[in-house]
Specification:
globular; binds iron/sulfur cluster; 35% helix; 280 residues; single chain; alpha/beta
Amino acid sequence: MKLEALAPEAPSIGSPFDLRVSKADKVDETDIRSALESGEWGFIHSFTTGSAVDGPGVRVVAWLTSCQFRCVYCHNPDTWKLTNGTPVRLDRAIDVVSQYKTSLRSMKGGLTVSGGEPLMQHRFLSKLFPAVHKLGIHTALETNGHLGERLSDDDLTSIDLVMLGLKAIEPGLHKRLTGVDNKDVHDFARRLAARKHPVWIRFVVVPGWTDDMGEVDRMADFVASLGNVLRVDILPFHQMGRFKWDKLGMEYRLHEAVPPSRETVDKVIARFRANGLKVV
Ligand code: SF4
């Protein structure tokens, strides 16, 4: 099936917590490849409007599909597969954002592109961000950072804020947690630091995985050493995505895990603050 035949009139508005699968399974492989190469199409799980937790102010969020990480705590495993997303033309995506232009500006918000891992579709981003930026809308990229080298310095000029998810500092722990090494993530963090690019760090506290205070201290040290981090979001692990793992028939290793206690979260926050970082 050709992409054009599948393209919806309007991109799907919804929540990242909606389970979405097989939206583009029937599209020809060659069409998918050329869409990724041209950047004229994006594969999008959903658009959320009015989000107050995905960057500064009130935001439109585009949740892109495809991710190379396999985080044990991922709450959106349906975004891992590119073809679970709906193909959306670049101009339609720009239209969606521009229709909220006035309210996004008045609520000091903007567009956040999240996922999945948006940089799996970096050519789409390289076109979407400059177009939205030109409209005077604030832009943010939420990324795991592993593919940061795919962004040119020029690309970075149209991304006002990078929200970088740091999963773990110790390489072995990072590999167990995500299935992927963290060297490239750190290289991207340092590159952003060298450019003094505005960054927020996001760190998920998962009991038994990332709540060891030695690990937290090393993470806080690393983040503080960068010098360009405007704020750190400490995110307590939750079970809102568990049903997706079950419905997708995937093995979920955190069935028994419970969210961290308030005391643990406060301890983690204190360790980051002790390094002079602003924590929310
Ligand atoms: S990087 Fe994000 S989307 Fe990818 S597996 Fe990890 S939590 Fe899920």
